[in-house]
């Protein structure tokens, strides 16, 4: 017995760009690019011209010379996300957020009071359009994986229901890139082996897939290709890490520039920690060099913290240690993740020796930014510089 298609995957369409078009009627129907140095988001009009997220700004403008480039407004995107998630939680208590603009919803127990999963999905899309002013695509299926694929296939502004008896018919002809976990490197490896569709991967024995792709990745992707995904919607799951990154383009960056960007990222992340009553134990620095090789550096605290000054000091130390390699190879991306998150109410209080001033300063700065916006106060080192908008790491998704 396969069960019923009761899992919804709801995904806002071209989220950042759609918020810009919603808030500025003159942008509607026109190609919009969010972010200048690197594309943070592109409207569907810009995507039709070949513009893609994470593309360099110069290349994007060559592809779409008439695009309107706007700076990102993270506060506006955060507010829109909160409004949409309020609708999700009003629809069902079983909501598992994946990122700022997508979530899974389990609606299997609502038939008597709210109708079929398809009827619930229709109303959800209507509410998001009417109450928040944004288009949202929804996939409905028996499993989380299939629901996510269905929402992607239905874009833009679509609804697709994959009934259990249609699962193989729907999934097997799709390109392997649709599988959750197949990125560019894995796709290229599969293509070299002559495997281009999900069905071709499903024809392999599991042991063969593991040998070709590695034990964990091979087993995972082979299971998905054969429609095995037992994970339920988990409304209690809390994120184990948060992070932000900034793509830097290919021009050389001085150590001083990198320090300013790092401080901006840490300021944002530490505030998110405090807003969520969370603390972190480990700081991870993520780098992508000029040759596009990636590296991570990490360091842990003796006790969990949410203090901006402590987190920044550790991040600066990691960056300083990596500076010789950055100077030799160049750098195209810098990011920070805060991991091993915990609840602040489970952390013993600090002795009131050195940190009182830092605690008070963090509290005051948070209050000022809450009232007047995130750009209302900045570090002296940032004055007169590019604001250096940082873009969220996965699972936040554009």
UniProtKB/TrEMBL annotation:
GO terms for molecular function: DNA-directed DNA polymerase activity. Residues 228-237 have a biased composition (Basic and acidic residues). It holds the Pfam family IMS. The active site is at 102. Mg(2+) binds at residues 11, 101. It is found in: Cytoplasm. It catalyses: DNA(n) + a 2'-deoxyribonucleoside 5'-triphosphate = DNA(n+1) + diphosphate. The record marks 16 as: Substrate discrimination. Residues 7-183 form the UmuC domain. Keywords: Cytoplasm, DNA damage, DNA repair, DNA replication, DNA-binding, DNA-directed DNA polymerase, Magnesium, Metal-binding, Mutator protein, Nucleotidyltransferase, Transferase. Its EC number is 2.7.7.7. It is an enzyme of class 2 (transferase). The keyword Transferase applies. It comes from the Bacteria. Binds 2 magnesium ions per subunit. The keyword Transport does not apply. Its cofactor is Mg(2+). Residues 228-249 are annotated as: Disordered. Gene3D superfamilies: 3.30.70.270, 3.40.1170.60, 5' to 3' exonuclease, C-terminal subdomain, DNA polymerase, Y-family, little finger domain. NCBIfam families: PRK02406.1 (NF002677), PRK03858.1 (NF003015). Belongs to the DNA polymerase type-Y family. Monomer. Poorly processive, error-prone DNA polymerase involved in untargeted mutagenesis. Copies undamaged DNA at stalled replication forks, which arise in vivo from mismatched or misaligned primer ends. These misaligned primers can be extended by PolIV. Exhibits no 3'-5' exonuclease (proofreading) activity. May be involved in translesional synthesis, in conjunction with the beta clamp from PolIII. This is DNA polymerase IV. It comes from Microbacterium jejuense. The gene is dinB.
């Amino acid at each position: 017995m396969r069960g019923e298609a009761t899992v919804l995957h709801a995904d806002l369409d071209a989220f950042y760009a759609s918020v810009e078009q919603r808030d500025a009627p003159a942008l509607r129907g026109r190609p919009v690019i969010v972010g200048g140095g690197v594309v943070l988001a592109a409207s569907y009009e810009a995507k039709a011209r070949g513009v893609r997220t994470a593309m360099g700004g110069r290349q994007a403008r060559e592809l779409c010379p008439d695009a309107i480039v706007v700076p990102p407004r993270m506060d506006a995107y955060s507010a829109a996300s909160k409004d949409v998630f309020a609708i999700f939680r009003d629809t069902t208590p079983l909501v598992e957020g994946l990122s700022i603009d997508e979530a899974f919803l389990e609606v299997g127990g609502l038939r008597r009071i709210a109708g079929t999963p398809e009827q619930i999905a229709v109303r959800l899309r209507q509410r998001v359009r009417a109450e928040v002013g944004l288009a949202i695509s929804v996939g409905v299926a028996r499993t989380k994986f299939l629901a996510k694929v269905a929402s992607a296939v239905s874009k833009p502004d679509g609804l697709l229901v994959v009934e259990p008896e249609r699962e193989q018919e729907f999934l097997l002809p799709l390109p392997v890139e649709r599988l959750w976990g197949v990125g560019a490197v894995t796709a290229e490896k599969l293509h070299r082996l002559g495997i281009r569709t999900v069905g071709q991967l499903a024809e392999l024995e599991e042991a063969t897939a593991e040998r070709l792709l590695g034990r964990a990745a091979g087993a995972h992707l082979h299971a998905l290709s054969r429609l095995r995904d037992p994970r339920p919607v988990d409304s209690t799951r809390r994120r184990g890490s948060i992070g932000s990154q900034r793509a830097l383009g290919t021009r050389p960056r001085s150590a001083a520039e990198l320090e300013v960007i790092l401080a901006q990222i840490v300021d944002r992340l530490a505030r998110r920690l405090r807003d969520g009553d969370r603390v972190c134990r480990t700081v991870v620095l993520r780098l992508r060099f000029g040759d596009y090789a990636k590296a991570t550096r990490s360091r842990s605290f003796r006790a969990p913290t949410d203090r901006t000054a402590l987190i920044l000091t550790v991040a600066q130390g990691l960056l300083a240690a990596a500076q010789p390699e950055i100077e030799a190879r160049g750098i195209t991306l810098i990011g920070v993740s805060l991991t091993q998150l915990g609840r602040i109410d489970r952390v013993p209080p600090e002795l009131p020796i050195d940190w009182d001033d830092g605690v008070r300063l963090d509290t005051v700065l948070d209050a000022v930014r809450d009232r007047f916006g995130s750009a209302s106060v900045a570090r002296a080192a940032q004055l007169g510089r590019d604001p250096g908008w940082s873009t969220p790491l996965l699972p936040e998704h554009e």
